[in-house]
């Protein structure tokens, strides 16, 4: 008898809930709790309309109103519902409050994005890694960043390390969205989090800064664990790549959270980079919004009230959960590795291609929410089936990748391999 409490009711949470309802043998009871209960009710109604069931069984779904920043209310709800796992698919700002509530109520935890303080557009694992001992001592598991990137990209890395390499020397993570929603400017997941991420400085990770020859002025080099961060201006490094089933796209180097944990966990690693594709219209709009101050995260006085410009912008932009019917095309997200096995040089590319319209037909969402919500459900399934239960706080490459990789193929995100990929210069 497995019970899950899901916090959040946006685009990603809606997909995770629908995929749980497709696996009622594992997810017998689901409580969807979020700030706006009407959104929880809408997810429940949509799932019931689709009639997901297996062998005559259906997930029993209830909903509740919850502000997850209110730790006492979260603890009380956990104690009342008694879930086996709490899934945090609200926003990264809530991570620490929900982890504290889980510790207090004695339940394990999973999320899809690492902690970011609201007043500082900056994310890193250190805040959540600081909870390692507390979770270990409480005999609880916390699974961090279990979406696609972060998430599946780390499972891909663990799989490559386990099966194809003695040492991985370089890793490029490529996130391509070839979808078109027809708007001049919209974001595919929470606009505030998305814009904070892409407006930030780019960075990549290298083991040895003296051997690295950066092509753009390097603003900063910061020592981190086994290596160094090399920081560049936003969008300063551009590459063009020809993606399977999508075609040629411009992609730009971004800082991304999984670089930090993979830099610690991949044997022999010398360099890790993350690239994401952007169209010219998106970049032009973003530059303009930045130039006029609309992406600012500090409060400004307007007509006697304080507003945060990026939060006001969020209210004007289309809700990512509403892009489903309009978005056409495919995503292609994967990892290219280069390293050695038995003394021989090896190259390996593993990726998933996902079609926006197929996702919409299945669960009513576009592919970005789908490629995040499906891995979140699989991570929860791994935990509930006793396959990913190491105590403490862990990122996805720290668990056995094999059962997760098998689930990707049956839960809607099949992967493909290429042993002779074109490398990114
Ligand atoms: P949305 O903005 O669509 O949804 C966020 C949800 O969280 C909303 O229902 C919101 O409620 C709820 N929420 C916000 N604050 C609180 C609070 N204090 N208490 C309770 N509920 C709250 O976001 P997405 O679904 O697009 O993204 C969800 C998460 O997934 C984010 O953390 C995002 O960064 C992450 N993500 C991860 C990816 C990956 O590959 N790893 C990719 C894409 C996203 P309300 O409706 O009231 O605003």
Strand content: 25-35%
Structural class: alpha/beta
- Classify the oligomer: single chain
Overall pLDDT? 95
Q: Rg to the nearest angstrom?
A: 21 Å
The residue fraction in helices comes out at 25-40%
Outline of this structure?
By secondary structure, the chain is α/β, with parallel strands linked by helices. It has helices at residues 11-21, 37-50, 71-81, 95-105, 126-129, 132-138, 152-163, 191-198, 258-265, 280-291, 309-316, 356-363, 367-384, 401-410, and strands spanning 3-7, 29-34, 60-65, 85-88, 108-111, 141-144, 167-177, 202-206, 220-224, 227-232, 238-243, 247-253, 271-277, 300-302, 305-307, 330-341, 344-355, 392-395, 415-418.
SSE inventory with pairings:
Blueprint: E1 3-7, H1 11-21, E2 29-34, H2 37-50, E3 60-65, H3 71-81, E4 85-88, H4 95-105, E5 108-111, H5 126-129, H6 132-138, E6 141-144, H7 152-163, E7 167-177, H8 191-198, E8 202-206, E9 220-224, E10 227-232, E11 238-243, E12 247-253, H9 258-265, E13 271-277, H10 280-291, E14 300-302, E15 305-307, H11 309-316, E16 330-341, E17 344-355, H12 356-363, H13 367-384, E18 392-395, H14 401-410, E19 415-418
Parallel strand pairs: 1-2, 1-4, 2-3, 4-5, 5-6, 6-18, 7-13
Antiparallel strand pairs: 7-16, 8-10, 8-13, 9-10, 11-12, 12-13, 14-15, 16-17, 17-19
This protein binds NADPH dihydro-nicotinamide-adenine-dinucleotide phosphate (NDP).
Residues 7-13, 34-36, 39, 66-69, 89-92, 94, 112-113, 145, 147-151, 189-190, 193, 320-321, 372 line the site of NADPH dihydro-nicotinamide-adenine-dinucleotide phosphate.
């Amino acid at each position: 008898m497995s019970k899950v409490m899901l916090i959040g009711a946006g685009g990603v949470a809606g997909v995770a809930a629908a995929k749980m309802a497709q696996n009622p043998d594992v997810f017998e009871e689901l409580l969807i709790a979020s700030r706006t209960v009407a959104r929880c009710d809408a997810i429940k109604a949509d799932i019931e309309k689709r009639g997901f069931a297996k062998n005559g069984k259906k997930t029993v779904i209830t909903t509740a109103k919850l502000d997850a920043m209110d730790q006492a209310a979260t603890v009380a709800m956990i104690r009342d519902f008694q879930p086996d796992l709490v899934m945090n698919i609200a926003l990264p700002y809530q991570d620490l409050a929900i982890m504290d509530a889980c510790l207090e109520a004695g339940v394990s935890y999973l999320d899809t994005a690492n902690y970011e303080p609201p007043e500082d557009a900056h994310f890193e694992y250190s805040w959540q890694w600081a909870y390692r001992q507390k979770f270990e001592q409480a005999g609880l598991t916390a699974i961090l960043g279990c979406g696609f990137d972060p998430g599946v990209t780390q499972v891909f890395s663990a799989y490559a390390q386990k099966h194809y390499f003695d040492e991985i020397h370089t890793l490029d993570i490529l996130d391509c969205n070839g979808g078109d929603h027809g708007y001049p400017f919209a974001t595919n997941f929470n606009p505030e989090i998305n814009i904070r991420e892409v407006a930030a400085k780019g960075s990549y990770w290298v083991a040895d800064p003296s051997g690295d020859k950066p092509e753009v002025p390097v603003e900063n080099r910061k020592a981190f664990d086994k290596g160094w961060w090399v920081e560049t201006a936003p969008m300063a490094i551009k590459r063009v790549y020809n993606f399977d089933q999508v075609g040629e796209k411009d992609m730009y180097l971004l800082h991304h959270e999984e670089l930090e944990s993979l830099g610690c966990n991949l044997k022999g690693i010398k360099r890790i980079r993350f690239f994401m594709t952007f169209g010219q219209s998106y970049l032009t709009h973003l530059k303009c919004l930045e130039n006029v101050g609309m992406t600012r995260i500090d409060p400004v006085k307007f007509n006697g009230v304080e507003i945060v410009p990026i939060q006001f912008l969020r209210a004007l932009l289309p809700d990512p959960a509403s892009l489903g019917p309009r978005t056409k095309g495919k995503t292609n997200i994967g990892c290219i590795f280069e390293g050695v096995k038995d003394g021989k040089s090896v190259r390996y590319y593993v990726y998933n291609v996902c079609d926006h319209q197929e996702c919409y037909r299945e669960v009513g969402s576009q592919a970005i929410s789908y490629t995040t919500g499906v891995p979140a459900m699989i991570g929860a399934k791994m935990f509930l089936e006793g396959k990913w239960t190491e105590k403490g706080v862990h990122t996805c490459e720290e668990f056995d990748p094999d059962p997760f990789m098998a689930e990707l193929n049956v839960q809607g995100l099949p992967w493909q391999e290429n042993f002779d990929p074109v490398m990114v210069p």
